Amino acid sequence: MPADKPTNIPKVCYEIFVRSFCDSNGDGIGDLNGIISKLDYLADLGIEAIWLTPIHPSPSYHKYDVTDYYAIEPEYGTMDDFRRLLAGAHRRGMAVYLDLIVNHTSTLHPWFREARKSKDNPYREFYWWMTQDQIDHLGISERETSDDSQVVYPWHTNPGDDEKYYGLFYKGMPDLNYHSEALREEIAKIVRFWLNDIGVDGFRLDAARHIYPEWDREQSVTFWDFFSKIVAKANPTAFTVGEVWADTEEVAPYFRHLNATFHFDLSFALQRMLVAGRDEQLIDKLIASFNLFQKYNPLFVNAIMLTNHDQERIGSVVNGNTAKIKLAASILLTLPGQPYLYYGEEIGMLGSKPDPYIREPFLWTADPDDPQLARWIKPQFTTPKTVAPLSAQIHDESSVFNHYKSLLHLRKTEPALAQVLAPNLQPVRLGNDELLAYFRPHADRSLMVIHNLGEHEVEFTIPEDKSLFTEVLFSTDPPHEKQLTTNRLSPHSSIILAPARVSAKPENQ
User: Fold this and answer.
1) What pLDDT sits at residue 10?
2) How many Cβ atoms from other residues are within 10 Å of residue 199's Cβ?
3) Which residues form a coiled coil (predicted)?
């Protein structure tokens, strides 16, 4: 079983692609000091934890190929900068999670530089090596592509060597081989360094299902048993959230050892539903997944998101339709779980693949010379012509930003929405697949949520057992402000209903 959960699990998390968020020194690259300058913004928005994409030295723009696990990428700042970021976040009640890449390193990492020198090098065992005959004998020279890797031929040549090394994602990212006890000890040192010496609050764990290659797949889950014990010993309250990009059935066993995993099935279902305008029996499927997860860990944390740094941005999925962008947020932030917002979702940023263009700079203002603006890439999707910058949205009550902010405030203040552990969710059947409706039961105050996914106004009938739910807590449909005035819901609108308050009768005089 995983270590005991932190006593205060952050309810709303925010993923920052560091290079693109905010520049502090005019070099065009987002950095740690830029993030520090926006901590008040994040706290005001309602964020309780931030996940930083990799901040270690790396030859790539995305930093997922690490060359030094103990240092900070110089483009992003220094270790002192990171300590200030950590302290500033903690003062504001925010946790900080590091993206930890333990599936692979860069070919430029000292371990691999040594490993590729000869078969006798002690670091050789840190990676996977085979001759072509061995690869052919095992039938593993090719692989089927997956959502998280399009590589078909994962074996790569090392000049002057009759053995090839295994790199699932890219030839510049050789996979680590955890059959090596020496490697396991090195990873344990890294975990202890960041949790104890530096004081981070936890890790987002990259490629968690690929720790061992496909022919050794069953070992990947057991690796996290080893890892979770290291984390628990270093800091029992540290939080772990795994990237297990797979179907729910494959994800579930990882809850034995990780506090949370991302719910990719939910992400893709939401995207399909927003495009098609129809429910896919989402609530029934979610409840089934919860029942499966709790078999492995009764205290599982369901990490939910619309999209992340590897997926087309939700704004582009819905073709920039502002009503659908808001609807996506309304659904995500009224479902149970621990939501992760991808930076810029709160202003409706756009982005389609290839990857750099789903990681474009955050638009703080419309000023093309804004010194905060990252300039490492010329954006193709998120520009002042296509997306209103934050500076404009803050003062617009109808903006995507204020929609997010209102929902986040409501989520944190309503216990029925704020519940993370033991997800409280029941279906509400309205007999129309253009409507997505569900019930969030809670001892303090239960809530009913209804979304119109379709392109037309829809009439509905509230079930008899929910007839008291007529007080409107939140609505994107103007006719419904404080009370449910009509059983109609406009296209792409959402409404959150609470039981009507009963006025006390005056005592007889």
Assistant:
1) 81
2) 13
3) none
